[in-house]
Structure to design on (100 residues):
């Protein structure tokens, strides 16, 4: 038996037959309530814990300076070994991945 793959499925036909009134009466949130919910979520995320106390902890990160056998790619700004230099132009080095 041949199957017509271009024919609409039954569930698609039913959804196309639903009326505009039925869609408008559905319980969907309006744009204002969604924006208010997002604003409330942003306010909760701004530097406080779920309990409401503000965290004043200072983070420390160890920064290792660039070694003599490394370079910073002018395209992707990643520090790479000098063996990965693909091209140098106007005093800037480009890595193999960016020139690839």
């Amino acid at each position: 038996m041949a199957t017509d793959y271009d024919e609409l499925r039954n569930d698609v036909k039913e959804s196309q037959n639903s009326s505009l009134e039925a869609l408008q009466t559905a319980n969907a949130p309006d744009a204002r309530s969604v924006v208010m919910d997002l604003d409330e979520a942003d306010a909760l995320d701004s530097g406080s814990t779920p309990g409401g106390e503000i965290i004043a902890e200072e983070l420390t990160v160890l920064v290792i300076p660039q070694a003599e056998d490394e370079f910073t790619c002018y395209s992707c700004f990643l520090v790479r070994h000098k063996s990965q230099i693909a091209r140098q132009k106007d005093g800037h080095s480009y890595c193999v991945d960016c020139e690839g």
Notes: The radius of gyration is 29 Å.
